[in-house]
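2024-03-11 09:14:02 INFO worker-7 job=invfold-0412 stage=load source=structure_tokens
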């Protein structure tokens, strides 16, 4: 349990440092991730509609 909490804290720390050090790249990454999720949602909606 302790290692899981340490890993969780390390993940957020690394993510925050990346966003602070490279804000443009972080914004591009978030845009790409949300674009991919939107495309996945559209594909799932089309699949469910076809059924």
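2024-03-11 09:14:09 INFO worker-7 stage=emit residues=51
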């Amino acid at each position: 349990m302790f290692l899981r909490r340490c890993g969780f804290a390390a993940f957020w720390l690394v993510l925050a440092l990346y966003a602070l050090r490279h804000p443009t790249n972080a914004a591009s990454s978030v845009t790409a991730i949300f674009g991919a999720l939107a495309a996945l949602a559209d594909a799932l909606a089309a699949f469910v509609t076809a059924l």
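2024-03-11 09:14:09 INFO worker-7 stage=report msg="The helical segments are 2-21, 23-50."
2024-03-11 09:14:10 INFO worker-7 job finished
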